[in-house]
Design brief:
203 residues; Rossmann fold; alpha/beta; 6 helices; 9 strands
């Protein structure tokens, strides 16, 4: 699938309706989703590989991975409303993606890749930590995720603590649209990094 086709397919997946600020339900921009999925290429890509999407929201990362041949694909999301949307979107695309209503701390099944756009911790300090702990525990091959740039030290330290190695970390363009009631501007740029962290020895 061409990148342009992937971006269009991801854009058709609805963002969270009435997003909850306590869960930091921020939509993943389609172009950035493509960036994240393409970051699996140095590890052999997604085709035939298992994927776990932690905090899967309406399913953009998980469905994008399935479109590129990942199997099986599981999304874990605490908000049942968003899981319903994700399931409908996967069915509309004739994709087999399992979406589970659960806290990420309840995830126990490992996968080749853990993909995620976790809470950035902007509304509640430390909200991202359970996501990173689960990701390092469950990724057999790599964790590929977004995070605020100010989290660089924390993520690097947690990677080292789990015996993982940062393969790449780079800033990506990110415009946060007006999402919550306290947002006064139509959009605002935020400093976000895309992380690629090797967790296994498999090439």
């Amino acid at each position: 699938m061409r990148r342009s086709e992937l971006v269009r397919a991801v854009a058709r997946i609805p963002p969270p309706p009435r997003p909850r600020p306590d869960l930091e339900q921020v939509v993943s921009p389609p172009e950035r989703v493509a960036d994240l999925l393409e970051a699996t290429v140095p590890f052999g890509g997604l085709a035939g590989r298992s994927v776990l999407d932690l905090g899967s929201g309406t399913g953009r990362l998980a469905i994008g991975a399935a479109l590129l041949g990942a199997v099986p694909v599981v999304g874990v999301e605490v908000d049942a409303r968003l899981v319903e949307i994700a399931r409908a979107s996967a069915a509309s695309a004739s994709l087999q993606v399992e979406f589970v209503v659960a806290d990420v701390r309840q995830a126990t099944a490992p996968a080749d890749y853990v993909l995620m756009n976790p809470p950035f911790g902007a509304q509640r300090a430390g909200a991202d930590r359970p996501f990173w702990e689960a990701a390092f525990a469950l990724a057999r091959r790599a964790v590929i995720a977004f995070a605020l740039s100010e989290s660089r030290t924390f993520i690097t330290r947690r990677a080292v603590a789990h015996g993982a190695r940062v393969a790449a970390s780079r800033p990506v363009p990110w415009e946060l649209p007006r999402t919550f009631a306290h947002h006064s501007r139509r959009s605002v740029p935020i400093e976000v990094d895309l992380w690629t962290i090797r967790t296994g020895t498999e090439p």
